[in-house]
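Crash report, auto-generated. Payload:
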Amino acid sequence: MIHVEALSKTYVLHTQGGISIPVFRGAELAVGAGECVTLHGPSGAGKSTLLRCLYGNCKADSGSIKVRHGASQVDIASAAPRTIIEVRNRTMGYVSQFLRAIPRVSAIDVVAEPMRAMGVDVDAARARAGELLARLRIPERLWHLAPATFSGGEQQRVNIARGFAPQMPILLLDEPTASLDAANRAVVVGLIEEAKQRGAALVGVFHDDEVREAVSTRIVTLHPEVSA
Amino acid sequence: MSSQPLLRVSNLTHMYGNRVGCRDVSFELWPGEVIGIVGESGSGKSTLLSCLSTRQQPTSGLVEYDTKDQGLVDVYSLSEPRRRMLMRTDWGIVHQNPRDGLRMGVSAGANVGEPLMAVGARHYGDIRQQAATWLDKVEIDPGRMDDQPKTFSGGMQQRLQIARNLVTHPRLVFMDEPTGGLDVSVQARLLDLLRRLVTDLGLSAIVVTHDLAVARLLAHRLMVMRQGQVVEHGLTDQVLDDPHHPYTQLLVSSVLQP
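Recovered output after restart:
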């Protein structure tokens, strides 16, 4: 489902004297259907950067990121923006650490939005969104409010519902359980298991040892690059 | 995905005498896509938009638009009447200052109904009905239909201008700082509205803004301009979260976090 080859990434900070920070060099990763691969390593090893490169949010300097998109294969590292948008709409979901709330958009519509982009009709998308919100214990009285005023944990759960609701073939998870209590962590572990069962390919970063142990089919360790 | 761009721009340059307005800009806009143009004041954003929307003849370069009957044609080669018809039926232009896009001396309903009449609608009852529907869509009480826009607040005027532009179902909308000059609460409402209308109607749009948050919310793709040139372009979140060009990095790091 995902095939990363010889991927390199260096951040160059022009506003801070042009200092360059190598993140990884020649990274390789292969993820198949039904797998949950965990990226592991110390802070600064490039876990989040690799995840963001897979999503096209970060532009790699060289190498390729081949992703199965329907019947075809797309190289995220070199694809045109509109192709990446198409892949994100149909194939690849991403759960970030923080919800980017949009003023005036209700929690249920935030969750329904990616399904709407896939072409699911409003009622079906809302019904599925409600199902996920209920599982993640967001009280129904909050569903029609904009999440900007929610607590950190509630926002994160809305974010998780948004990521899991459309049942994408590929799901990228950047510390989805960071601000959750034990009961909600268990729900997320359950969601990840179900995604594996239906044959999705998952790549995640989990700081919580228990979650990592529970969901990983394989752990890939990254090491920080030393500045040349 | 469609295989034909809606708009194709090649090597577009506009000079003001010896000074550069915009230089060597090339890009394609695809159906349903929203492109944001960001950059500081004087970077050539508005000049570019004027050249694209045939309000200012470029010094050199090509602007081609996918017309319904002839496919891609150079918009500057069209006869004046055809160009006017294109602007009335296919394009919309939302100005930063609503007074530039509205007729202040006639009622709100007439402002929305007029573009319909310009494309041939004649039945008064239908026109009035459509105007009321559109006022409602942009969250203006249809009861205010017979009031003149000068009695409206800035945010209402801007929403009215949007209704006036969208009532004829254009395929491409040019927006120049659509939220500039509005206070933030009014801005949020307008943005949410624009986002919904663009998605529901499948519009393509080119939005000039100096507000990166507005760009992130509305645009699929971003072009960063500086001194008349496009210095960086790409997927909106990629450009904002992983900027490569020194100027984009400066721009992104200069935004104040509230």
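Post-recovery validation: The mean pLDDT of chain A is 92.
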